[in-house]
Amino acid sequence: MTIIDGKALSEKILREIEQEHSELEKKVGRKAGLAVIIVGDNPASQIYVRNKIKACERVGFHSETIRLDENITEENLLSEIKKLNNNNNVDGILVQLPLPEHIDELNIINAISAEKDVDGFHTTNIGKMMIGDKSGFLPCTPAGVIQMFEEYNIDLKGKDVLVIGQSNIVGKPMTLLLMRKHATVQTCNSKTKNLSEKLQRADVVIAAAGYPKLVKTTDVKEGVVVIDVGINRVDGKLCGDVDFEEVSKKASFITPVPGGVGPMTIAMLIKNTFKSYNQKMNK
Ligand SMILES: Nc1nc(=O)c2c([nH]1)NC[C@@H]1CN(c3ccc(C(=O)N[C@@H](CCC(=O)O)C(=O)O)cc3)C=[N+]21
């Protein structure tokens, strides 16, 4: 059994980008820049945003955090985005989700210039992903999972993959990226029947349901590859959607929480920001 070390792999990716960036920066005369907008004071969001800014510092990028009040109007939030769209020191813009109820998320995401949408959530980038146009940005979490498969030489061709969850930011794009790898993908949601049977047949399981210990030993077959995208806080402790203790006994590969998919998500954000910076330089 191999524990997929997302932390180490993300470090490796960040080191490479740091190198390339420091060379480019000398030529270009400015750093790559990421702007993060955070609305309200959701404690989990605060942690994730802090980790993203830390990663920027780690690779020598410029970063700015724009903290806005929970009660901000959609109009005022849109005008903040417009400013960043026009700011030449900003290559990537990220609006931390979820947003408060009174704000239309899709409207906000699509107000970000597609060329700066390093989350890969903009309609244009989703379309590019769908047809395989490489000029777009891939959503960070699914892209990070694919990177893990590649690094550990896990071949997906012809494999039965079960994706649990169909969110716009994980489950749906994950399914598409797996299709590109010629996997046979089944995507489940809360209405799915006989989940346990489906799990027993899967060669690869990607758990992104947001439900602690949803995947148990009794559900999986010997040698299964398990990717845990869940991040749940139970009694103040961080845990995934997989019962790691037990499932790791049967798995051939498994990701831990923390230290698995989370750090990879951040590495892909940095990678996308660097891609945007490069694309702007080449224009
Ligand atoms: N516009 C937007 N883009 C996002 O990419 C986005 C978002 N909104 N909203 C929320 C989710 C969640 N997400 C995580 C990022 C890093 C860790 C991470 O660093 N996890 C660490 C542990 C962090 C901890 O201590 O909680 C780990 O798994 O090792 C987790 C989750 C990005 N998201």
TrEMBL record:
<keyword id="KW-0486">Methionine biosynthesis</keyword>
<protein>
    <recommendedName>
        <fullName>Bifunctional protein FolD</fullName>
        <ecNumber>1.5.1.5</ecNumber>
        <ecNumber>3.5.4.9</ecNumber>
    </recommendedName>
</protein>
<dbReference type="GO" id="GO:0035999">
    <property type="term" value="P:tetrahydrofolate interconversion"/>
</dbReference>
<dbReference type="InterPro" id="IPR020630">
    <property type="entry name" value="THF_DH/CycHdrlase_cat_dom"/>
</dbReference>
<comment type="subunit">
    <text>Homodimer.</text>
</comment>
<keyword id="KW-0521">NADP</keyword>
<keyword id="KW-0368">Histidine biosynthesis</keyword>
<keyword id="KW-0554">One-carbon metabolism</keyword>
<dbReference type="GO" id="GO:0006164">
    <property type="term" value="P:purine nucleotide biosynthetic process"/>
</dbReference>
<keyword id="KW-0028">Amino-acid biosynthesis</keyword>
<keyword id="KW-0378">Hydrolase</keyword>
<keyword id="KW-0511">Multifunctional enzyme</keyword>
<dbReference type="InterPro" id="IPR020867">
    <property type="entry name" value="THF_DH/CycHdrlase_CS"/>
</dbReference>
<feature type="domain" description="Tetrahydrofolate dehydrogenase/cyclohydrolase NAD(P)-binding">
    <location>
        <begin position="139"/>
        <end position="280"/>
    </location>
</feature>
<comment type="similarity">
    <text>Belongs to the tetrahydrofolate dehydrogenase/cyclohydrolase family.</text>
</comment>
<dbReference type="InterPro" id="IPR000672">
    <property type="entry name" value="THF_DH/CycHdrlase"/>
</dbReference>
<comment type="function">
    <text>Catalyzes the oxidation of 5,10-methylenetetrahydrofolate to 5,10-methenyltetrahydrofolate and then the hydrolysis of 5,10-methenyltetrahydrofolate to 10-formyltetrahydrofolate.</text>
</comment>
<feature type="binding site">
    <location>
        <begin position="165"/>
        <end position="167"/>
    </location>
    <ligand>
        <name>NADP(+)</name>
    </ligand>
</feature>
<dbReference type="GO" id="GO:0005829">
    <property type="term" value="C:cytosol"/>
</dbReference>
<dbReference type="Pfam" id="PF02882">
    <property type="entry name" value="THF_DHG_CYH_C"/>
</dbReference>
<feature type="domain" description="Tetrahydrofolate dehydrogenase/cyclohydrolase catalytic">
    <location>
        <begin position="4"/>
        <end position="119"/>
    </location>
</feature>
<dbReference type="InterPro" id="IPR020631">
    <property type="entry name" value="THF_DH/CycHdrlase_NAD-bd_dom"/>
</dbReference>
<dbReference type="GO" id="GO:0004477">
    <property type="term" value="F:methenyltetrahydrofolate cyclohydrolase activity"/>
</dbReference>
<dbReference type="Pfam" id="PF00763">
    <property type="entry name" value="THF_DHG_CYH"/>
</dbReference>
<comment type="pathway">
    <text>One-carbon metabolism; tetrahydrofolate interconversion.</text>
</comment>
<keyword id="KW-0658">Purine biosynthesis</keyword>
<keyword id="KW-0560">Oxidoreductase</keyword>
<dbReference type="GO" id="GO:0004488">
    <property type="term" value="F:methylenetetrahydrofolate dehydrogenase (NADP+) activity"/>
</dbReference>
<feature type="binding site">
    <location>
        <position position="231"/>
    </location>
    <ligand>
        <name>NADP(+)</name>
    </ligand>
</feature>
<dbReference type="GO" id="GO:0000105">
    <property type="term" value="P:L-histidine biosynthetic process"/>
</dbReference>
<dbReference type="InterPro" id="IPR046346">
    <property type="entry name" value="Aminoacid_DH-like_N_sf"/>
</dbReference>
<dbReference type="InterPro" id="IPR036291">
    <property type="entry name" value="NAD(P)-bd_dom_sf"/>
</dbReference>
<dbReference type="GO" id="GO:0009086">
    <property type="term" value="P:methionine biosynthetic process"/>
</dbReference>
